[in-house]
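Input:
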Amino acid sequence: EIVLTQSPATLSLSPGERATLSCRASQSINRYLAWYQQKPGQAPRLLIYDASNRAPGIPARFSASGSGTDFTLTISSLEPEDFAVYYCQHRSNWPLTFGGGTKVDLK
Amino acid sequence: QVQLQESGPGLVKSSGTLSLTCTVSGGSISSYYWSWIRQSPGKGLEWIGYVSSSGTTNYNPSLKSRVTMSVDTSKDQFSLKLSSVTTADTAVYYCARDLGGYSYGTMDSWGQGTLVTVSS
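Output:
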């Protein structure tokens, strides 16, 4: 199965700052990558699918890029509601797998 | 907007069978794939498998021998059974809708999750 490695594990930032999160796949997954946001006590929420497509209702401050094995999620200017855990997930083959997550917390 | 709601026992005895149902509202269960995902502190998010509205299934090989999924389109529900559970199966279980089509494998709507604890 494909292993997704996210870095850093924790990102400590202030509101208004730019957040850059990384996801690396153990083999090429083309552009078959999604990003999810999860807040405490809530289910994951789809942010990005197929590497760079924002899901409906997701603010433009969320953008993503990448292909092959290296992917990036960028939050251009952190809002208070963006402090959460972010997961990447591939759909290149079965089984689907998730990364271990990056926690964006308040500096 | 589609909504999903998991239901089922929150406590299961070791060696028993975990059974959960997900009820879909606000949208049709037809023409989509429906997934189960679980989350435990030790293993993070783990995709368990999916069942299509026509009953086709696909399971994670790591759980395949113990998993059964089914769908009841007349009730807009789909279900998960996990047999021979151990404490390692203690987790929050989510049901989710798979976008399907050209974006299969992407989960765009999730239930709130239900904690299932396996007691020894």
